[in-house]
Amino acid sequence: MKYEYYGRERICRSFIDTKINGKTLNIGAGEMLWIENDLFPGNPNFISSDINKRNLGKHNLAINKIVANAENLPLKNNELSQLIILDVLEHIKNDEKVIREIHRVLNSNGKLVICVPNDTLLSFINPIRYAQHERHYTIKQITSLLKKNGFAIEKVHAGGRILDLVDLYSHLIIKYTTGKKIKLSFLNGLRDKEYSNHINNGNEITVLARKI
Q1: C-alpha closest to that of 207 among 154, 159, 160, 149
Q2: Pick the CATH number of 7-211 from 1.20.1000.10, 2.40.50.140, 3.40.50.150, 3.10.350.10
Q3: How many CB atoms are located within 10 Å of the residue 93 CB?
Q4: Among candidates 176, 87, 191, 69, which has minimal Cα distance to 129?
Q5: Most CB within 10 Å of its CB: which of 10, 47, 76, 123?
Q6: d(Cα 103, Cα 122) in Å, to the nearest integer?
Q7: What pLDDT band is residue 69 in, cutting at 50, 70 and 90?
């Protein structure tokens, strides 16, 4: 399967180091699996994790897979060189505990790539905000949380506006009416333009940080 990246995924992909020495952990493999199946397929230094065992089945091409809770990772201190956590932190009640746990398992100068929803006026019409999320973050809130818990911020990008939400709504409607997971490809280029430049009130915030 050939992967093409648009919008949030393109930004996140650009922050991820696929050539890094040492181990990389992805927290929250989920259903999309582009990190497992395109960026790190068959990589012995990559670990795919999810709280739901179903997301770690044969469709997930990672060699190493673990069922794990982000608040209590079954890893040693300083074991990882990179940790990826996209669209997960906003689902967890005790987000600071997760950040402290991430700090514990990363080695000195280890990379963290994190993506969270931005707390903007537009985010109040995001249905997932009410159904699944504990909170949304401003750029100041997420960067302050990371700094407070031992991370230095290297890069921040916020993007996505109304077309991002149109894409989300269409995906949810199709999924829950037909049971199929279909992305409307004609929206890809349009919503990608919403991520072409950093805008403080963009829908999604992606951060690259390092453990200090």
Answers
A1: 154
A2: 3.40.50.150
A3: 9
A4: 87
A5: 47
A6: 31
A7: very high
